[in-house]
Amino acid sequence: MTLILPHIERLTPYALGDLPPEGSAAIKLNQNESPYPPSPLVLEALRTLGEEELRRYPDARCAQLRAALSRLHGVKDEQIFCGNGSSEIISLIVKGFIGPNRRMALPDPSFSLYHTVAASYQASSIAIPTRCDYTVDTELLTNSGADAIVLVNPNAPTGHLLPLEEVERLVSRFPGLVVIDEAYIDFADPGATAIPLVDRYPNVIVVRTFSKAYALCGARVGYCIAAEPLIAALEKSKDIYNINAISRKLAVAALEDRDYTARTVAALKATRDSFIVELRSLGFDVIPSQTNFVLCTPPAGAGKPDARQWYRKLLERNIYVRHFEHPRLADKLRISIGTDDEMAAVTAVLRGLLA
Ligand SMILES: *Cc1c(COP(=O)(O)O)cnc(C)c1O
């Protein structure tokens, strides 16, 4: 007798790539984490954690965090759902709104976790190719015949942003659910968020995370904004205490320090833009990025290393970046933006290896 359901047996787990050992001094530019610490207010909240907060169950409705988020985004508390990282929200969306034998379309390449999650709920996922320049073809998505569409915007791992007008056109013409994963929106041009669409379109869910711009990957907090019926459905299907007391307190503290977030995001964008200039001067082709990473193609030519070899050479020097086996990504590297010092170290290694 087999104990494991066939669709779980068949599942290909989400690939994380090579990871440095915990506590290593590697330059880690492979998971799009923030190179800066969380706000001092977050660290203060952690230090002043009370006995009571550990002894009691946390509020199942997550009222404090939802209230802070509703103020930030100008929506109602009832339009917000908080989760144990946006990964949990992605799972709950697929579980509650897509499910067995229904189809979810997403651009390709994009965040492959969506394919894994679809398979784990027996939903199918359809990869809709992006254009040659990796821009998203909304026409193909709209006509995909799928029950739901997922747009990672800005997209990962390409860094490309679909303008809000195009997002709205897609949302208004597609009758099914449209999930817009805005994990990287804080690093994009202002005004690109689809949150304003939520009041006008009942079929939109905007997913956000504290992992990237707030430097809280380890705390695992995400949220989504949608019309009230969708939020109520997510509330019903979640684990009762899906966000622990510590993490939600840290997320509330992070929201209080708007200046700090703005400063660190601005610093990251400046580092990104100068790193792109450096890469191009070394002959790398770089897709314009609206995120905290760049997708780049090393210079081709006889005797020059290909992307896989570059990946190995960087790894040998304790620099972790990302290489994907996907046919449209195999000649590229995705490099997260670190501090100025880290990017200078990467640039120096690249320059040295090219010489
Ligand atoms: C990093 C990332 C997330 C965030 O995941 P968390 O579970 O909130 O840490 C979500 N979507 C995409 C596309 C990402 O790259």
Automatic annotation (TrEMBL):
Pathway assigned to this chain's UniProt record: Amino-acid biosynthesis; L-histidine biosynthesis; L-histidine from 5-phospho-alpha-D-ribose 1-diphosphate: step 7/9
Residue numbers of N6-(pyridoxal phosphate)lysine PTMs: K212
Domain of life: Bacteria
Aminotransferase class I/classII large domain residues: 27-345
Catalyses which reaction(s): L-histidinol phosphate + 2-oxoglutarate = 3-(imidazol-4-yl)-2-oxopropyl phosphate + L-glutamate
Record keyword Coiled coil present: no
CDD domains found in the cross-reference section: AAT_like
Single GO molecular function: pyridoxal phosphate binding
Enzyme nomenclature, EC number: 2.6.1.9
PROSITE patterns hit by this protein: AA_TRANSFER_CLASS_2
Enzyme class, broadest EC rank: transferase
First and last residue of the signal peptide: none
GO biological process: L-histidine biosynthetic process
KW Transferase (keyword) present: yes
Subunit structure: Homodimer.
Family: Belongs to the class-II pyridoxal-phosphate-dependent aminotransferase family. Histidinol-phosphate aminotransferase subfamily.
Protein name per its UniProtKB record: Histidinol-phosphate aminotransferase
Name of the coding gene: hisC
